[in-house]
Amino acid sequence: MLDAPDPPIGAATRSAPSGHLRAQLWMICACCLGRLKDMSWSPVSTLPRRTHTDHVEPEPGSLAEYFDSWYADMAGSPVKDAIQRRHLGLPPHLLSTSLLGWEGIAEATSALRLSAGSTLVDLACGRGGYGLEIAARTGARLAGVDFSAEAVRQAREQAPRLGVAAEFCVGDLAATGLHADSANAVLCVDAIHFAPQPDAAYREIARILTSGGRAVLTCWEPLARGDERLPERLRRVDLRGGLTAAGFAGIEVCDRPGWRASERAMWGGSRRARPR
Ligand SMILES: C[S@@+](CC[C@H](N)C(=O)[O-])C[C@H]1O[C@@H](n2cnc3c(N)ncnc32)[C@H](O)[C@@H]1O
Questions:
Q1: Less crowded by CB within 10 Å, the N or C end of the chain?
Q2: Angle, vertex CA 65, rays to CA 61 and CA 70, nearest 5
């Protein structure tokens, strides 16, 4: 399904080559084949969104509030974005808060198999950078969801600058507020591990996808499940297991050690950057 240079699809191993390697980037491409509805697709003059009046407000002191201030800081200083762009090979218009580089975007785009007018949901979209880029490449319409109201605000500002048909709303990984069977494809970049109940998030992806729809997730997985050096939320990541339980089929998991190398280089670059 994917052009995978190294290692070949299916050859990814869960055994740790080195005790120092704390986590690994994985990519999943899955077809949601478990449901019986056909592929008929209503025109997306209405993107599959909740209205702005019923959005989910983050609770005080919550993780969403933490992300709100994270994104507000990014709006105030270009340093983080500059470092990230340099290490991931991203153009200035692409606002990322993760580790998917330029080549990874091409791989994800190809795996999503979008066509013009189809609908892509970027789940936990942050400032919308990857979804907007893929929508611009494919002509797909974009619906972005994130629980950070500040991220959604910035994403809404960015879409018209890029001339992409997109809507962004506040919602949760496990409760997007989007209609069932409303997405042809779902992208979730470096975020599924934040779901307090991962199974509910996988089920939500399956719920919003049309039958035959495709999902691409990027995340880290522990090389050793019991590795206590890892935060609990990363220790429990099991992409194949979670997607299988949610009814996905045709799941491919690809190890991307090169992405991990970029991450290390990026954190090194951050340490050397002077605070402004
Ligand atoms: C590492 S950032 C990645 C953002 C974006 N996907 C990107 O690659 O630029 C993780 C994102 O997950 C969002 N997030 C975390 N937990 C969430 C949840 N339970 N529901 C919705 N979004 C969540 C955060 O607000 C943040 O935008």
A1: C
A2: 130
**Which is the CATH superfamily of the domain at 18-273?**
Vaccinia Virus protein VP39 (3.40.50.150)
Distance 227 CA to ligand 1 centre (A): 24
> Cis omega (within 30 of 0) on the bond before 7?
yes
Report whether pLDDT(173) > 70.
Answer: yes
Pairing state between β 166-170 and 24-31 = unpaired
Neighbouring residues of 73: CB distance < 8 A, sequence distance ≥ 6: 80
- Provide the 10 A C-beta neighbour count for residue 240: 17
- For residue 36, which amino acid is it? L
Q: Which residue among 148, 156, 199, 204 is best mutated to probe the pocket of ligand 1, counting the most ligand atoms within 8 A of its Cβ?
A: 148
Q: Which residue's CA is minimally distant from atom 2 of ligand 1?
A: 97
The 10s digit of each residue's pLDDT in 57-92 is: 455 569 999 999 999 999 988 888 998 898 899 999
**What separation in Å is there between the alpha carbon of 3 and the centre of ligand 1?**
27
Distance 40 CA to ligand 1 centre (A): 30
141, 118 contact by CB (below 8 A): yes
Question: How many Å lie between the centroid of ligand 1 and the Cα of residue 249?
Answer: 25
Looking at the chain, the whole-number percentage of residues with pLDDT higher than 90 is 61
Q: Cβ(124)–Cβ(85) under 8 Å?
A: no
- Nearest atom within ligand 1 for CA of residue 67: 25
CB of 94 sitting under 6 A from ligand 1:
no
Q: Is 276 exposed, middle or buried (0-12, 13-18, 19+ CB in 10 A)?
A: exposed
Q: Are 122 and 155 spatial neighbours (Cβ–Cβ below 8 Å)? A: no
